[in-house]
Amino acid sequence: MVTVTHPAAAITGKFESDCEAWLATLKEGYDATELALLHHAYQRARQAHEGEVRLSGESLFEHVLAVANILVALRADSEVITAALLHEMVATAKLPLTQVESEFNTTVAMLIDGVTKMDTIQFTAPELEHRVSLNTETLRKMLLAMVDDVRVVLIKLADALHNLRTLNSLSEERRIHIARETLEIYAPLANRLGIWQIKWEMEDLSFRYLEPERYKKIAGYLNERRITRQDYIESFLKELRDALMAAGIDAEVSGRPKHIYSIYRKMQRKQLDYHQIYDVRAARIIVNEERDCYAALGVVHGRWRYIPGEFDDYIANPKVNNYRSIHTALIGPEGKTVEVQIRTRGMHQYSELGVAAHWRYKENVGPNAGFERKIAWLRQLLEWKDEVRDASELADNYKNGAFDDRVYVFTPKGQVIDLPTGSTPLDFAYHIHSELGHRCRGAKINGHIVPLIHELKTGEQVEVLAV
Length: 467
Fold this sequence. Notes:
alpha+beta; Hypothetical protein af1432; Beta Polymerase, domain 2; Ubiquitin-like (UB roll); 3 domains; six-stranded mixed beta sheet; three-stranded antiparallel beta sheet; 54% helix; elongated; disordered N terminus
């Protein structure tokens, strides 16, 4: 978002006390070395953004700290959070990437560079308004930005989510554009990475701006019946806990929060009235072992009649993004329908954090980054086919190596240009327009002048210097 600069205030010791208070909330998840890295990043960002205010009225530092806190909630590693704190400094040319690398480390610089590349990708209104026109080129735009490290996408998602939370001060046109971009690009991306807590919030907030009347209608219906529904669920949960305990199953039982957009989508998809949506009343069972999931299922189906056609075993048959749980819908007490999810603690962690869960260090052993990147990359590719018409062909082409002889570069405006491997800036110029090719006298790659015989590489930004 656009920022305006006010006269800088004096840098005071309050920064240190604020920083220490923030770090105190993180101590359980990060070691001393990681906390030192975060301390330095906090102080650098706080000082650099002093006096800068966003159009929303909040300071720019409050924005980067909010983004960092979203990532903390995802249990992201210290380098990801550091990159989140610093990325606006790089974007506003207050901190060169070379200095990030020397002052922090190479990984942090690489993550910020990836976020910067994602920021150059611009989605036009026609692309967003016509969902099927999110075609192969647009898919490539997103895939290009993700290819180096999936953690780049975590930062971008957190940034996009906080932007969505602070839309009220923008014009209606901007609110609608950002909400649509989030709903059509970033929420599905969060889904592909399995980060449901971000996906749900993005969808609900976007829906609120894009379809305010429908949002209010569903929200109002939920609110009107909240007390009755809560009383019912509490009674159902007690009965469920007692039944599981009697069967000797150690389980954590809770109600499950409902999301307005998911209710709306189910109503649209199944052409149902609100009263026919089974999972408005929902419960979740979390157990220790996979075998306990099926034992719990036996207890549930033995006590209440399940609804045919509403049972899914995603443990035996995981979703493409590796989501695993058992879903069933029951005729509960008083003849009311209740949806029940059953999963292990490990499955629950993955369902909440998705691929982000694999990037935290555990017992001083780092994640197998190469393996995780490949799994995440494949998961993203395969998941496209569920949401975009052209995607399965894209995934097949990727798996068959069809892109091996192509190179994909950006124009200064973020448009992706598809060229044969071995292409030069001159080839790029002629691809744009023959007249530009005739007038080409030089080129810049990522802001640096290069010879016209420079061989282009995927992800580079190319600027033609013409007479």
